[in-house]
Design goal:
CATH architecture: 3-Layer(aba) Sandwich
CATH class: Alpha Beta
CATH superfamily: Hypothetical protein PA1492
Distance between the termini: 10 Å
Order of helices and strands: EHHEHHEHE
Radius of gyration: 14 Å
Structural class: alpha/beta
Number of domains: 1
Helix content: 40-55%
């Protein structure tokens, strides 16, 4: 499965780059356990941030940021087989869960709940 890891990235950081980097690091911490189970982990920021930067983005929360970050996750969810929702307040991650449920995509709340690949 291609599994989107969803959780806080910008939320609660006050746009502090160090706090955002720590949040990304936390999201990434789930990637190895997912991979060990035989799946491919995906994080929306892995895709969205390079797009935003190459499009000329420079200020977190600017119009371009808003046009790229959350819509990227929505587009990725068209290709994902599941979502892993990590704990923590996050409007974007909550939206990912909402989209996944609307599309009938399984949502897991623990890596332990993700079945191993056949």
């Amino acid at each position: 499965m291609l599994i989107l890891i969803a959780g806080p990235y910008r939320s609660g950081t006050g746009d502090d780059p160090a706090k955002m980097a720590a949040n990304l690091n936390h999201l990434e911490s789930a990637s190895w356990p997912i991979f060990k189970k035989g799946h491919v982990p995906m994080i929306g920021e892995w895709v969205a941030l390079p797009i935003w930067h190459t499009a000329g983005g420079s200020t977190v929360g600017d119009d371009l940021y808003e046009k790229v970050l959350h819509p990227t996750a929505g587009r990725l969810l068209k290709h994902c087989d599941a979502v892993l929702r990590l704990a923590g307040d996050s409007k974007g991650a909550d939206n990912d869960v909402r989209i996944a449920r609307e599309r009938g995509i399984p949502v897991f709340f623990s890596v332990d709940d993700i079945p191993a690949a056949a």
